[in-house]
Design goal:
Layout: E1 21-24, E2 36-42, E3 51-57, E4 62-66, H1 68-74, H2 77-91, E5 102-109, H3 111-125, H4 135-142, E6 154-160, E7 164-175, E8 180-189, E9 192-197, H5 202-205, E10 208-209, E11 222-228, E12 230-231, H6 244-254, E13 256-259, E14 274-278
Parallel strand pairs: 6-12
Antiparallel strand pairs: 1-4, 2-3, 2-14, 5-11, 6-9, 6-10, 7-8, 7-13, 7-14, 8-9
């Protein structure tokens, strides 16, 4: 993958070994493969404002964030379980509600493994070494039997009905009109969108809260029907859905400011946010 600075810091999962392996966000098993167009906000651009730049990759979207040992560990049962979840998410029969939400039927999935893979993605999306408060999340990922820590962010799912994916590292949103402060992250690739949030928000209420899966065991299986909103991803920023006009109207109503941690000299697309799409030659 050209143009993305190689990270030389420590693995986002174990925190001990140097980064030596690439992590696909989301996994290739979930459809993140092939030629991809990446539009990212380059905070390191030599201008007074961040620029949106584009790159094309040949093998999906990935970031150098893990050591080889951790990549091998999480790349087995976790990735397979997450891939099965995504397959059923997109292929199961479903009925539309009058509210616009849809029912997704899940059969025989391993919810604990799905959620652990979700938090691998949460940690790998960060362009900086995880905050000390995330150590329990790393322990949770590394121990297949460990339950989700009580202070972990909640995980919400929505149906991504757009042709775009989106990867947002943990960031802050300050809304001047509502006096609300949120800390969120997002990993979305059609058809599955995941939002990680430390606070409640009405935009999350319509999504499916998967956090309870974190209390299930690694061998537990689940049959369930979940109701989800159908949301369109078109913007780089978290919790921004719909057409450009709809997003602009929402920004006028909320007056948001986005706070990101950007390491000095970093040129990683996940510094602020990345919008992904299948590459189609012009």
């Amino acid at each position: 993958m050209t143009g993305i600075a190689k990270q030389t810091d420590l693995c986002r999962v174990c925190g001990n070994a140097p980064v030596s392996s690439k992590e696909h966000l989301p996994p290739k098993r979930a459809g993140n493969r092939g030629k991809m167009r990446i539009a990212f906000i380059d905070a390191a651009a030599p201008t007074t404002e961040a620029e949106v730049r584009e790159r094309v990759t040949q093998n999906g979207f990935w970031v150098p964030r893990l050591c080889a040992r951790c990549n091998s560990f999480v790349g087995g049962e976790y990735v397979e379980a997450y891939g099965q979840f995504v397959d059923q998410f997109g292929q199961s029969g479903r009925l539309e509600e009058s509210s616009g939400r849809i029912f997704v039927v899940l059969e025989g999935i391993h919810p604990s493994r799905v959620l652990k893979q979700a938090f691998v993605m949460f940690l790998a999306a960060a362009p900086w070494s995880p905050h000390p408060k995330w150590q329990p999340l790393r322990d949770y990922v590394l121990d297949p039997t460990s339950p989700l820590p009580q202070d972990a962010p909640s995980v919400y799912a929505y149906m991504n009905v757009s042709g775009f994916g989106r990867v947002i590292p943990a960031c802050g949103i300050v809304e001047f009109a509502t006096h609300k402060v949120l800390c969120v992250a997002e990993v979305s690739w059609p058809p599955v969108g995941l939002v990680f949030s430390y606070q409640d928000d009405e935009r999350l209420d319509q999504m499916a809260d998967l956090s309870r899966w974190g209390q299930m065991g690694p061998s537990d299986q689940l049959d369930a029907t979940i109701a989800l909103p159908q949301l369109e991803v078109t913007s780089h920023f978290p919790l921004a859905f719909g057409t450009s006009e709809e997003i602009l109207e929402e920004e006028r109503r909320r007056l948001p400011a986005y706070l990101f941690h950007v390491p000095p000299g970093s040129h990683s697309p996940t510094d602020i946010g990345v919008l992904l799409a299948r590459h189609r030659p012009t």
